[in-house]
Each structure stands twice: as structure tokens, then as C-alpha cells.
Amino acid sequence: MPNKKVVVGMSGGVDSSVAALLLKEQGYDVIGVTMQIWQDEDEFTLEEQGGCCGLSAVDDARRVAETIGIPYYVMNFKQEFKARVMDYFAEEYLSGRTPNPCIACNRYVKWEALLNRSLEIGADYIATGHYAQIRQLENGRYAICNSVTAEKDQTYALYNLTQEQLSHTLMPVGAYTKPEIRQIAEKAGLPVAHKHDSQEICFVPDKDYASFITNYTGRSLPEGNFVDEAGNVLGRHKGITHYTVGQRRGLGLPMGRRVFVRELRMDTNEVVIGEGDQVFSNDLTADRITFMGVPPLAIGESDSFIGKIRYGHKGSPCIVTRTGEDSIRCSFEEPVRAITPGQALVLYRDGYVAGGGTIR
């Protein structure tokens, strides 16, 4: 759409770089922006963190902007990222839940904070390199829709965006596969055409969540007992922040068979261990609910969807009932594995996101 201004969130990776390129080719007035979110001002530490937070990301994004001929800026969102993502991440783990920081970052930093600032400077849209698409459905509502490639689909982490945010968002990468995106980047001479994707949580690159929480908050949860469902003590655990529902590795229990974390009991500081079939369940409750592609259910109303309980879950048929102003109950047709408090329940219908909530 010629003359429309769009701010592209550039992480220094190939996907957001190609998003900027595609939009410029489509006639948009494109501005590249990298969000400064890392808290440490030490240059060596910033460089080492890599991912979408390090100085290398800024350098790569700036080189891409120069290559495709668009203005480029770094915007400071450290305060928003600390409050909305890092504080939330630590508090959830300290409360015995397993958070998804990327979902929080998408909703409150990349969209709420970046979109608001972009609109303030006269932009019409923001854009990202997510593998997803946005459509306005026949019912008039905007929805995140599956990308053309199931392998890279990122709709799960975008379920809680608002209608206002979606109406000001472009996602050009969702119409392509990853190999096609790399091919476009290579043909355009972008310096990040073959850059590896970042996999880890950007502020916990070593994946040692428990140590991060202790260092970040000065708090650590005490050791306690591993127990079975009947309350029999099976051994000692290192502190509840080291575990999540469904976890099998790293338990250090000489059981002689495969066992899993079934439940985290904060009131007694116990980690409940179960057999494989004991981590399956049909039902969950959720709060912090969002309705995206469908109008909000009335309290007491039920409807059927496909529900996903984690990023890697393929989705299962379910019935969802709204039980309160900010609560739903979800019943799956078949038992699903390791329903984990703190993770997202995302509801789908016909290839689009209908809504979701946070598993309690």
C-alpha cells in the first residue's frame, strides 16, 4: 500500500530482515527498528548474549537496513521488558508455574509498547518476521492465521494480541516457507541470509532458569521432597524452580523406570512424581482469557475448538465453557500429556486463532 508508513521490528535475523525487504518492495514507507531490551550495559556481556538482545543483532539489523535502503533506529524498551517479561518470568517460576516469556514479550513489548511508540511517530502499521498471517474474517474480527509452513508456524505465541493491535500489524513472512525466505535474502544480498535462528530464551541463554531466578531476584526456593501420589517420599529435590510438569530428565531419582513430574505443590514444597499414564489429563481451567477470531463467549456458554497446550502440541478437539468474567474450563475429547500451569491454552478453528488463556 503506497505511502503507508510501517515500522518493522528488526531482530537482526533473516526473517525480520526479509519482512522489511518485502514491505519496501510492496511500496510501503519502511522504518527499521531494533528494540533495546537487554538490561546489562556491559558491552562484552551484551555481545555474548547474542540472540535478539545482543550488540551483534543491532549490527546485523543496521547492515540490512543499509543494504535495502531504509532508515534504522534503536529504541529503548528496557523498562517495559524488565517489568512485563523478566519480572513476570521470575514470579511465575517462584509461584510454581512454568511461564512462556515469548508470549508476554509479544503482547506487551513488541506490540503494546512498540506499536504505541510507532503510532506516536506517525506510522500506520508495525510489522514482524513471524511465521503467521493476519486476516479479517467474515465476522469482521481480525485473527492470526496459520502460516504456509507448519514447521515454523508461530501462531501459538501470538494468541493474546488485541483486535486494535492486529488491525495495525503486517506479517509478510507468513506467506513463505523458511527456505524461500533465505532464498529471497540471498538474492537481495542481505548479509544475514544464512544466519542461524535463535532458539533459547534471550535473557537465559544457558537455559539454567533456576540460577537466573536466584541471581535476578535474590530468592531461591528450598529443597524438599519428591513424593508419589500417595505421599510416600521418594527422594529430595533441589527446589521447585528446577522443575516443570511433564519433566523426565534431571530428576536424579533411581527409580529403575521412566517417571515424570506430575505436579508441583507449593504449599508443602513437594514435587509429585508419576508414571507415564499419570501425566495425562482431560481437563484444565484457564484465566487471563482472550477471544480473537470469535466473539467472546457468554458466561455459561460452551463451544468446540482445537486446543493446544504448548508450542509443540499438535492440538486436540475440546469443548470450552466460559465459567466467569476471566475464566474458562476446557475438556479434551482424549487425554493430553502434561497440562502445565503457566503455559498457554490456545484455541484454533479452521486454521485461525479463536482465543486462549493461561493454564491454571
Characterize the structure shown.
By secondary structure, this protein is of the alpha/beta class. Helices cover 26% and strands 29% of the residues. The chain is globular. The two termini are 43 Å apart.
Average pLDDT for all residues: 91
Give me the number of helical elements.
8
Q: Main beta sheet: strand number and arrangement?
A: 6 strands, antiparallel, barrel
Shape: globular
Provide the β-strand percentage band.
25-35%
Lateral arrangement of strands in the main beta sheet? 12-15-14-13-16-17
Percent helix among the residues?
A: 25-40%
Strand count: 17
Q: What distance lies between the first and last C-alpha atoms, to the nearest angstrom?
A: 43 Å
Given as residue ranges, the uncertain stretches (5+ residues, pLDDT < 50) are 42-51
Compute the gyration radius: what is it? 22 Å
Short descriptors:
5-stranded parallel beta sheet, 29% strand, globular
What is the topological layout?
Blueprint: E1 5-9, H1 14-25, E2 29-36, H2 43-49, H3 55-68, E3 72-76, H4 78-94, H5 101-120, E4 125-127, E5 132-136, E6 142-146, H6 163-167, E7 169-170, H7 178-187, H8 209-217, E8 224-227, E9 233-237, E10 260-265, E11 270-274, E12 280-291, E13 302-308, E14 316-324, E15 327-337, E16 344-349, E17 352-359
Parallel strand pairs: 1-2, 1-4, 2-3, 4-7, 8-11
Antiparallel strand pairs: 5-6, 8-9, 10-11, 12-15, 12-17, 13-14, 13-16, 14-15, 16-17
Helix pairs in contact: 1-3, 1-7, 4-5, 4-8
